Structures are given as structure tokens and as C-alpha cells.
Amino acid sequence: MMKKLTMLLLVLACGVLATCGEEASSDCAPISYDPLNQDPTREPLCYLDNDDCDGGDWVTIQSVYDGDTVTLPDGTKLRMLGIQAPEQPEGADKEHPELNPETCLGPEAGAFLRKLIEGKQVCVRDPEGGPQNDPYGRRLVYIYDGGFNINMYMVASGHACAFDKYAEPLCLNLLKTAEDEAEGFGVGIWGLCADLHGDPCQRAE
User: What's the domain range around 118?
Assistant: First the structure.
């Protein structure tokens, strides 16, 4: 089943959602994981067809805090299910965030998600058991734009790790497949951060 859920066709991250403009950077690294896989055995919660938001809510993303947390116009904070992005640097880490394994490529992950969804209307869906909040009061959700599972897209492009603390089993398996492929291509955190600190996803275990 996992093989069925992995596309062999290379997809340019900067081409799929047209977010990178003319800038050439790690944001535009090639990935082979396609969140719009049309396999009929896929888990409906992990995917959406086109712009359908059945069972979810249309919301506007007011701002992006980092690579896995966003805020709505009413102040509600959303935490993306199943992923863990690098932290935003603070204090001394701001000058060289890459030197701290916790913040390595943190600014880039936030900037990538910002390009994808900030200011846009997107679909959010709760986990299968219904609305849940994390210990910080953030609503746990999957985010979709045009049918793309943005949670998976962040992992597939090397801007986040699969994270089992806030995840559901089948979606977590798909996220780990995306993580494996990002590692294989050496994109995002699997390039610089892996070279400097080893496995960048150990902290997400």
C-alpha cells in the first residue's frame, strides 16, 4: 500500500503551488511525493479531492508563526497535525539559527509555509475523533489548499518532520513515507541540518 501511495514522478515544490517565484533556493527542491495521489485505497482524512472541504471548515490564515503553527483573524491558533517543524530562533540563535539543532532552518520553514498559505482561504479539518487542542490551547488540524495536504507538503519538501505526538496512525505512516523521500533527496533540513547535527528528526520522535 505504501508503494501505491508514493508517486515516481518528480514534482517541483516551487511549481506545484507556484510559491517560489523567480527565486532559486531550497524551497524549490525536487520531491517525488505527491499529496494528490489518486489511489482509491487512500485514507480520506489524509487527502481531499480538488477544492472539496466536506467535513471541514473554510478559514483565512491571518499569519504564520512558524512551520507548523498559524493564526486565524479571530486569534485562534492552529497546530498542524502530524508534523514538527524547526523552532523559530530567539535571542542569540537569531544570528546563526543553523548552529542550533532546534532552530536549524526554522526561519526558512516558516517562510515556506507563509508563501504557501498566509492570507489565503484554506480548508482545515479536525482529527477523526473531532476537535482537539494541544496543551497550549492550539486547535489540531490538517490544512488543505486546492486539495493538497499542506501538512504532508511541509514534510515532503524537507521543512518539517513527521511527528507522532499529534498524529493519527495511517496519516502518520504517509507522513513518514514523505519524510523518507525528503531525506533521500537531501532537501531542506535533510541537507544542511543533517550535515551539521545528524538526524534532524530525532527530536520529533
Answer: 11-204
